[in-house]
Amino acid sequence: MEPNKGLVLGYNGVHPFSKVEIKDRASVQELLRTLLDPLEPFFSPLKSRVRCPGATAVRFDQTASEVEGICRPLWGLACLLAGEGEYHGTEWWVEGIKAGTDPESPEYWGYPRDNDQRMVEMCPLGFALAVAPVFWQSMSEKERGNVEAWLGNSINEKKYVGPQLHPFAGDAYLTWLSMPNTNWLWFRVFANLGLKKNGGKFSQERLDSDIEHLNTFYRGDGWSNDGPEGIHQMDYYSSSFAIHFLQLLYAKLAGEEEPERAAEFKKRAQIAALDLAHYYDNEGRAIPFGRSVGYRFAMVSFWGALAYAGVELPEPLTWGMVKGIVLRHLRWWQTQPDIWSSSGTLTIGYSYPNMYMAENYNSPGSPYWACLAFICLAVPPEHPFWTSEEELHVGKIPEIKGLKQPGHIMSHLGGHTMLLSSGQACSYPMKGTHAKYGAFAYSSAYGYSVPPGLFSLEQYALASQLGLSDDGGEYWKTRRKSEYAGLEYRDDQPVLVSVWKPYPDVTVRTILIPPQESTPNWHIRVHKIEAGREVMTADGAFAICNQRSIDGRYLDLYDSEKCEGTFPKIIGNYDLNTPDGWAKGHQGAFAVSKGAVGIKSLEDKVERNAMLVNADPNSNLVESRTVIPTLQHTIKQGEVVWYVSAVYAKPSGEGVPKQSYLDGWDKVPDIPGWLKAEIGA
Question: Which PANTHER family does this entry report, sorted A to Z (predicted)?
Answer without folding.
Answer: LINALOOL DEHYDRATASE_ISOMERASE DOMAIN-CONTAINING PROTEIN
